[in-house]
Amino acid sequence: MSNIQQFHYDNRISRAFGMASFIWGVVGMLVGLILALQLVFPSLNFSENGFQYLTFGRLRPLHTNAVIFAFVGNGIFMGVYYSLQRLLKTRMWSDKLSWIHFWSWQVVILCAAYTLPMGFTTSSEYAELIWPIDLLITLVWVVFGINMFATILTRRENHLYVAIWFYIATWVTVAVLHIVRSFELPVTLTQSYPLFSGVQDALVQWWYGHNAVAFFLTTPYLGMMYYFLPKAANRPVYSYKLSIIHFWALIFIYIWAGPHHLLYSSMPDWVQSLGTVFSIMLIAPSWGGMLNGLLTLRGAWDRVREDPVLKFMVVAVTAYGMATFEGPMLSIKFFNAISHFTDWTIAHVHVGALGWNGFLTFGALYWMWPRIYRTELYSRQLANVHFWLGTLGIVFYAVPMYWAGWTQAMMWKEFTPEGTLAWGNFLDTVLQIKPMYAIRALGGTLFFVGVLLGVYNLFKTAQQGSFLADETAEAPARERLPAKTPANEYWHRWIERRPMQMLLWSTILIAIGGIVQIIPMVFIESQVPKISTVQPYTPLELTGRDIYIREGCVGCHSQMIRPFRDETVRYGEYSKSGEYIYDRPFLWGSKRTGPDLWREGGRNPDLWHYNHMMDPTTTSPRSIMPPYPHLAEQELDLSSLPDKITALRKLGTPYTRDFEKYAVANAREQAKTIALHLADQGVKDEGLENKEIVAIIAYLQRLGTDIKVQPTVSE
Amino acid sequence: MKSKKYTLVLPLVMLAVSGWSQAVQAAATTAEPAAQQLSDIMTIILTVAGSALFIVAMIYVVKVNQFLYKKVLQLEAQKSGAVIPEEVPAVEAAAGDDFWTRMRKQYWEDAVPIEREEEITFHHAYDGIRELDNRLPPWWVNLFFLTVVWAFGYMYYYHWGGDGLSSTERYNLEVETAKKELAVALAGRANAVDESNVTALTDGSSLGEGELIFKNTCAACHGQQGEGGIGPNFADEYWLHGGGIKNIFKTIKYGVPDKGMISWQAQLKPTDMQKVASYILTLQGTNPPNQKAPQGEIWKEDEGAAQDSTSTAPETLPAEVPADTQ
């Protein structure tokens, strides 16, 4: 104990990430609010005069990315950089790396804020960012990893506290997810095609998407909970044993649950069932975190009544418990048949995002800010107002969305006694829930106002205090323990002394689920039965498909007809996995604000599509879809078409040899046919065959038609 | 602590029990269709009985496990000569709790009371955060085991031998069932409207409903006043697929997919198609603005003998309209 060392914690970096978190939080939530209002007032898409950058389709990924990677992402780094130093009794290993991490992450966010409204997107949910940004993210993550592990290796504590187990698992899993999801072949600077197609792409996507929730929104925040909650409550963590069991169980089981996003899809049944059972087995490990959080407050509940920090944390942990119970329930086929593609899903994720991530971030910020500014919180009362506005906001958000989801699902499925759909016009089911969308927007507004008050409160707190950039601390240098395990020691202590073993075992555990599910799907051909009449897209259809992706149509329109009577009556034959083998990326979607489009081909005439794109209300009165007149103004860009054909052939699409040389001519020809057809029917626009509209019509008219083609019998 | 290997016994026993209860359920559900109801009741009884047995077995296993665990600790202590600290109980022996509170604290929560917390606090603190050595809440452990058992049962039922239907089988069953039910439901309506017997309605309320349907579903392509647009003009006397109530009804019902007219029979009831077809007939000669050029051939109402349907008593038809459309 003689060699006490003095060192300084770096508060600047935690403050920077904290500020970034709430600034981006405000931006991300504002975009969310705009989206909510667009569903009630479609004119807020501002697209009727050809302004294309603020439509729902383009803004939706901006909202999800801003909230997940900018608000929560910066929140994670704030929490990690603050707690890691203190739990290890050392400063971050390299200030330089800390700041490279900080600024490059903000650059990633700014790139996202620019590219997504521009329509540069891969369309894979939560992985929309284009490949150059993917590379930058990889770099940031490596920098973060080096800094974190170097700090861990130069620590003054012998053992790693539970929060750090979660940080380690987070780091490795996000790295694996991000890399595998980014297997893509670049075509241009802003476009790439994924390595996997159709069903396989869907499986990889939801393995990624689900575990982005698990390892970006959950595990790092559990780590933060394990630091900030006992600190704020000044109570010991309830059960060390519980920490151990629920940590290892959680990271092992979580990774398997992705296919629950694909129930009743064309995914083979065995994959779907694995998704279901692992989701159910996830209840207890998830609740382990909630229990350890709530039970830590034993003996401090009287303070919860008074301390806004604890209030935020209690609601956060409770919301976590509710969302992690609801999730498994939605993974049961019975509920999924109702909830999937409806606003129920939206309600579910927002209980998690607003309640768990939002409130834990606010709790941690309110706790941390006065400490780094060496002062009291500016206004406890204001924080209480924030708390109540936020809580009411969540209620006013979630309840109408549950109502809307349930209502719409019931309307979709209702038949008349004569055997026809009771609500044959999809739009009727949308208009029915419009009032719910309005109430949801009110809930969002309440939450948003609360956040603004919070930002003001933190700003005033900073103003009245003086910032402590380098916080002095003392601790003895680390004495290496003898290699032999001391008698009577907890078995788990062994691995807590060995961060690299921790990393290794976490990696092994999180790899198993993905391997078992993805490898057979990719390498065993019988998993996706071939359909002889399914052909690759024509060059024009491919171009149209890329426009469909650019406009974010997948945000509201699914391309996956589930095997239910109401869906096959409404849309046509249910989807088969073999139909999607040339779909790169897959576009099944996860929400139906508009109808499914998989059998749209041939359903409506070209002119219908033309009118519908120019102004959806002409063909569907009171439709809430934004108009897309810019598609009839923008020139069809076929310059990268040969590269696209070549890239797709490399990935396995059987375009004939040298086809890329004829691709443009082929596209022009098909465009001319459609333009002539439109002109025949009375469209007077000049040079229609050179506009984007013909490409998207070509694509829409192709959708789901291949299985209707009679196979040519070759004797 | 080296107790973990003994806890392994637990899930194995659970699995055995689960396999048994699943087998029983499977046996119950394979009964003859005639005995379906009985088999449903049997399934419930067996499930309840199985669950009860399962809970008893679980308590027993927990007890055995605890016993073994203590024994091992004692043996190890004898070897090393160390003293095993006694476990801090969940409930104070002298506490005045009633039976149920005691049961809850002991078998549901199993938490060391706050007053004796010091005894289970690890001496090390991380940045001031201490940890307690509380036992796992028994209800939580059991919940975990139950979900694992459920998972194996689910996989058995759907994949390893049970009667669970695949997605495709379930869909086919759903469609078959609906078809049968529909056949029964429509059997009573011998005169269900179809293209062979449809007649034009002339009463105001039917035509009003027809107009409403027209505005909502047809006007997008055929114009608000039937003047035509994407689809042909209804105000002139030219028809592409034949005029007259029967042809119009048929075109609405089956559509003309090649020309972009979709089939409406999944969305509109036969009586609704009749109403809207009747309304369309009333548009003849209304001469709305912006009419689309004529398409098809002139259709004369008196051409076919069967066309003279307007004179046959339309009053009988509303009686067939199901109550829910009124």
Low-confidence sequence ranges of chain A: none
| Share of residues in strands of chain B | under 5%
Largest sheet of chain B: 2 strands, antiparallel
End-to-end gap of chain A: 89 Å
Q: Which chains share the greatest interface?
A: A-B, 72 and 68 residues
Q: pLDDT below 50 for ≥5 consecutive residues: which ranges of chain B?
A: 1-9, 26-34, 304-326
Distance between the termini of chain B: 75 Å
Rg of chain A, Å, rounded: 27 Å
Shape descriptor of chain B? elongated
Number of helices of chain B: 9
What would your notes on this structure say?
- The complex is a heterodimer of chains A (715) and B (326).
- Chain A is 63% helix and 3% strand.
- Chain A has helices at 11-40, 56-88, 95-118, 131-153, 162-181, 198-233, 240-254, 269-281, 283-296, 301-304, 308-330, 333-339, 343-372, 380-413, 426-432, 434-464, 493-496, 499-523, 539-550, 565-571, 606-614, 616-619, 630-633, 641-651, 659-680, 692-702, and strands at residues 4-10, 184-186, 192-194, 470-476.
- In chain A, strands 1-4 form a two-stranded antiparallel ribbon.
- In chain A, strand 2 (184-186) and strand 3 (192-194) form a beta hairpin.
- Chain A is globular.
- The model of chain A has no long low-confidence stretch (mean pLDDT 95).
- Chain B has helices spanning 4-7, 9-29, 36-80, 99-109, 138-160, 167-187, 204-222, 244-254, 270-282, and strands at residues 238-239, 297-298.
- Chain B contains nine helices and two strands; from the N terminus they run H-H-H-H-H-H-H-E-H-H-E.
- Helix content of chain B is 52%, strand content 1%.
- Chain B starts with a helix and ends in a 28-residue tail after the last strand.
- Chain B is mostly helical.
- Residues 1-9, 26-34 and 304-326 of chain B have low confidence and may be disordered.
- Chains A and B meet through helix 2, helix 6, helix 7, helix 8 and helix 9 of A and helix 5, helix 6 and helix 7 of B.
